[in-house]
């Protein structure tokens, strides 16, 4: 039952048509219950009131006849009077299948009387004639009084009505005549009406559900089609269009959707054209600059190698020129790499490597920079081998870039490098305890040519493309490159890769943010 309820709730969440049908049926059911209750009450009350009026009229005639019989009687002894009284019950009783009436002729209490018996219908339960109605009958001034009762009939109970009135019997004194009516035929009529209302209501609800389903299908069908077309457009099928039929609001939606798609396609084509021109321009410029850069680099190496024989101002100029040429060369290499990624010309060379050795190689390559800043790089791993299918050169470059950034912004505090593995994934995290980043910086950390603090003096010539290339390298491996940072608490970059290419994973073996570390200055 809980599973069925969950499926139903899931259907309501996913289907607009299901919600429309259920809402319509639910509101209709409430309306039918209210209307059916009102009709049932009105019909039941009408049947009861009509039957009460009939019963009162019958009872009034019966009381009149009996009172006339006693008044015209010439009985002068007890035997004759008792015989006359005994004739009242069979005369007034009616036990046909369509109507049942019982009779009781009771003497008023507290009066001295002859030794006369009170005749009562043999099947009548005298407890139905309550002291309340007897008191009302004695005080009614010869008018009819009545009371609703519940009559036991076998294991069932029938609704009934007790009607009473006073009688004056010559020589016998004051008596009370009670007529008890079984109203079960009226109750059966009411049950039939109520059953008909219930069945009719259920049939009507089924018809309402069917009509609601058909109407909602005509409305949600075009909306569902629009959603499917939108998904195909999102997947790159920009030539998809909605059919335009009629003049209603759905047709207007289709026309507006198609106009939007045409406009979007035009803008995307323009963007692709501009982007292709831009990418080609970057690639062409980068390639064209390599030729003069090679000549400049050769001359720079000659000058730089002979700076010791130069006067001090020229030697310093040679060193400055050399560092800027190196930086320029790195920028060209980064631009060429970005242009290759943009052109989709990068193909990974995936082989099985020990990720720990790759990380150790990256740490060794930034060891000189770390010593210059007085920064210790701590590798944390409990294993000697973590095998993964990777492009080793790109992953080493990626980790080297993360380490260099950590050294630059770590303020001389230790850098923790962690390696983790799971069944389908491996991960490397680089955590520093330096300046950290705020929310705006986090949002832009992987943007091209962006730097967290352009005014800060750097030990190495950054291009602003390192993290963009690192993210592209992670995507090439179908992996993640994620970052966590807080101002004044440092930053942590986590690289998560599939253990084998083509194997999916859902979470990283390492936590992010990382576990709290003690950062000694």
Number of domains as seen in the coordinates = 3
What gyration radius follows from the Cα positions, in whole Å? 50 Å
CATH class designation of the largest domain: Alpha Beta
Shape descriptor reads rod-shaped
How many H/I helical runs?
A: 13
Main pleated sheet: 5 strands, antiparallel
- The assigned structural class equals alpha+beta
What is the CATH topology assignment of the largest domain?
A: Beta-Lactamase
Roughly what is the average pLDDT, rounded to an integer? 82
CATH superfamily of the largest domain: PAS domain
In the sheet with the most strands, the strands line up as 1-2-5-4-3
What is the name of the CATH architecture of the largest domain? 2-Layer Sandwich
How many angstroms separate the termini? 61 Å
Low-confidence stretches: none
How much helix, percentage-wise, in residues?
A: 40-55%
Instruction: Output the helix-strand order.
Output: HHHHEEHEEEHHHEHHEEHEEHHEE
> How much of the residues is beta strand, in percent?
15-25%
Number of strands: 12
């Amino acid at each position: 039952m809980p599973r069925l309820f969950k499926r139903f709730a899931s259907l309501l969440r996913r289907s607009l048509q299901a919600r429309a049908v259920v809402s319509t049926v639910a509101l209709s059911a409430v309306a039918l219950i209210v209307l059916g209750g009102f009709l049932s009450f009105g019909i039941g009350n009408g049947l009861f009131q009509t039957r009460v009026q009939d019963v009162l009229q019958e009872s009034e005639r019966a009381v009149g006849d009996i009172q006339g019989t006693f008044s015209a009687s010439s009985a002068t002894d007890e035997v004759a009077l008792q015989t006359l009284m005994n004739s009242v019950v069979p005369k007034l009783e009616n036990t046909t299948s369509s109507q049942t009436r019982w009779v009781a002729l009771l003497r008023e209490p507290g009066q001295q009387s002859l030794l006369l018996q009170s005749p009562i219908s043999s099947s009548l339960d005298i407890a139905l004639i309550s002291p309340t109605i007897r008191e009302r009958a004695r005080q009614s001034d010869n008018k009819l009084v009545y009371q609703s009762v519940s009559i036991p009939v076998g294991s069932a109970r029938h609704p009934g009505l007790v009607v009473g009135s006073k009688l004056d019997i010559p020589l016998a004194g004051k008596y009370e005549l009670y007529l008890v009516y079984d109203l079960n035929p009226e109750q059966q009529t009411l049950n039939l009406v109520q059953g008909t209302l219930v069945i009719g209501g259920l049939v009507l609800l089924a018809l309402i559900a069917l009509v609601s389903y058909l109407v909602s299908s005509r409305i949600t069908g075009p909306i569902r089609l629009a959603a499917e077309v939108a998904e195909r457009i999102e997947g790159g099928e920009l030539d998809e269009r909605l059919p335009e039929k009629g003049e209603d609001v759905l047709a207007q939606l289709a026309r507006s959707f198609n106009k939007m798609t045409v406009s979007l396609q035009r803008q995307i084509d323009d963007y692709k054209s501009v982007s292709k021109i831009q990418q080609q321009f970057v690639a062409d410029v980068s390639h064209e600059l390599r030729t003069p850069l090679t000549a400049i680099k050769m001359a720079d190496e000659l000058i730089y190698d002979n700076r010791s024989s130069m006067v001090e101002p020229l030697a310093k100029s040679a060193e400055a020129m050399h560092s800027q040429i190196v930086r320029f060369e790195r920028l060209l290499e980064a631009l060429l790499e970005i242009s290759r990624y943009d052109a989709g010309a990068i193909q990974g060379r995936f082989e099985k490597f020990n990720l720990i050795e790759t990380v150790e190689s990256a740490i060794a390559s930034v060891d000189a920079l770390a010593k210059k800043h007085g920064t210790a790089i701590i590798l944390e791993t409990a294993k000697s081998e973590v095998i993964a299918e990777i492009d080793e050169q790109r992953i080493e470059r990626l980790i080297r870039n993360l380490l260099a950034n950590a050294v630059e912004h770590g303020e001389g505090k230790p850098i923790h490098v962690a390696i983790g593995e799971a069944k389908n994934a491996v991960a490397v995290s680089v955590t520093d305890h330096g300046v950290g980043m705020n929310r705006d910086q986090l949002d832009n950390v992987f943007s091209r040519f962006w730097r967290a603090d352009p005014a800060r003096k750097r030990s190495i010539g950054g291009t602003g493309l390192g993290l963009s290339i690192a993210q592209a390298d992670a995507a090439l491996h179908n992996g993640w490159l994620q970052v966590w940072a807080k101002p004044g608490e440092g930053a942590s970059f986590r690289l998560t890769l599939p253990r084998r290419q083509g194997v999916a994973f859902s979470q990283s073996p390492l936590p992010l943010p990382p576990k709290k570390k003690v950062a000694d200055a």
